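Protocol step 4 of 5: obtain the predicted structure for the target chain.
Materials: sequence only (see below). No template structures provided, no constraints applied. The aim of this step is simply to have a reference model before the mutagenesis design in step 5. Sequence pasted as it appears in the construct record:
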Amino acid sequence: MFDIIIVGAGPAGLTAAIYGRRASKSVLVLEAKAWGGQIINTPDIENYPVVAHISGFDFANQLYEQAKALGAEIVLDKVVELRDLGDRKEVVTPRQTYEARTVILATGSENRKLGVEGEDRLVGRGVSYCATCDGNFFRKKTVAVVGGGNTALEDALYLADLAEKVYLIHRRDQFRGEETTVAKLKQRENVEMIYNAIVTRLLYEKRLTGIEVTDKLDGSVRTLALQGLFVAVGRIPENENFRSLVELDPSGYAVADESCHTRTPGVFVAGDNRTKAVRQLVTAAADGAVAATEAVKYLNQ
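Step 4 output (structure tokens):
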């Protein structure tokens, strides 16, 4: 019986483990893949307070070592079910069923990908899923943003202040995002909007050098020379296995405010799988600290 079981060993989960152990609670972290989450794919983190430059891999590794040194148990095992038995919870994996008094779900979310050949190997070498994280690397360069929602529009507007040229590519003839943001983009001389088009090929050597864009209406293909491609076609939160105990919004995010409480007492949520306005490394860590603190309060009642 653990005091706290944390599902997910990304920045939110490992921060929660640190705070749980510092409160002298027994902590088990279960991770399906590898510790660190999405941040391990980031070559250079520049926006985390105090740390001016660090690779995502090094950041994740140091966070892991800190949690381990404090006594957190970290096990690679995929959680497939969560059961609420009142004053205790059962966390089920294919190999074992664990028991805990509280559970923190820090499963994060995955970037929805374009599905184009070479996309995975170009992450960190021209392909990015976070404009605010990586936009600064593309100052005075040519980039493209793919997507039609508010995230894509805001990314394009953000990049327009940094890049020499920004292409905004959408598969429909109008954007789903706010009209006010679209209007602002139309006023930018360095932004070109491409409608009814999809990215069908990535051009690269060691790094991205361009893309091919296919018009959905007439099938014509256009080649764009660029150095950065920002994909903003949505994210997939990993919450489906917990739907019976956690309320999910229409996009699949766990409904919880800044207290990180879910509708089930003793079950908390932290990180990118929670409903929130900003999903960044620093907010994931903040969620982990809050969720663990709230779990400790629950345990001490």
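Step 4 remarks: The chain has two domains: 2-110+235-300, 113-231. The longest strand covers residues 97-105.
Proceed to step 5.
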